[in-house]
């Protein structure tokens, strides 16, 4: 339990000793216009396969919950799970054992060229 607490502190404090806050993902553009349902399918496929590439299932679950939550709740989720966030927007994270978790932009925010479902 001690290692979890120290890790939670590491994820919450940056190198200046100030609390590191998650920020909104930067705008991005899909190669072609994409519908909300196509984006949802891409996200579901990522989350279904992500645990097969390493890391812990519970960390992947926490990252999914954080990526789908408002920023303040996302911050609470990653801090509580002991996730070390090295990017401002959850795109690169580590667990307490040093396993790396890379999240693609499309699971973190919607593209600027999303079109309505037909």
Automatic annotation (TrEMBL):
InterPro entries: DC-UbP/UBTD2_N, DC-UbP/UBTD2_N_sf, UBTD1/2. Pfam families: UBD (PF16455). Residues 19-116 form the DC-UbP/UBTD2 N-terminal domain. PANTHER family: UBIQUITIN DOMAIN CONTAINING 1 PROTEIN-RELATED. This is DC-UbP/UBTD2 N-terminal domain-containing protein.
């Amino acid at each position: 339990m001690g290692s979890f607490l120290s890790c939670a502190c590491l994820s919450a404090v940056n190198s200046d000793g100030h609390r590191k806050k998650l920020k909104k993902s930067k705008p991005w553009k899909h190669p072609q216009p994409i519908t909300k349902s196509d984006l949802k399918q891409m996200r579901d496929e990522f989350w279904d396969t992500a645990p097969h590439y390493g890391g812990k299932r519970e960390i992947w679950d926490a990252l999914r919950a954080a990526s789908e939550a408002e920023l303040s709740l996302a911050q609470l989720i990653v801090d509580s799970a002991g996730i070390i966030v090295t990017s401002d927007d959850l795109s690169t994270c580590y667990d307490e054992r040093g396993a790396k978790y890379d999240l693609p932009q499309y699971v973190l925010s919607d593209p600027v060229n999303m079109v309505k479902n037909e």
